[in-house]
User: Which sequence fits this backbone?
């Protein structure tokens, strides 16, 4: 029984897996933000080019 407790303490004290999950969540959040910003900028750029195109003879 003591061996089981020792193994459980070792597993619970290991924080490397938690850090990996946190980094994964950060990368995912950054990706979502980038997609949102690029979509917004793309719409603005498209509107600007459409305005320029209609203004040209």
Assistant:
């Amino acid at each position: 029984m003591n061996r089981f407790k020792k193994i459980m303490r070792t597993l619970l004290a290991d924080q490397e897996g938690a850090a990996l999950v946190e980094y994964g969540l950060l990368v995912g959040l950054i990706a979502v933000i980038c997609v949102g910003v690029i979509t917004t900028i793309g719409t603005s750029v498209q509107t600007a080019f459409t305005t320029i195109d209609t203004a040209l003879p």
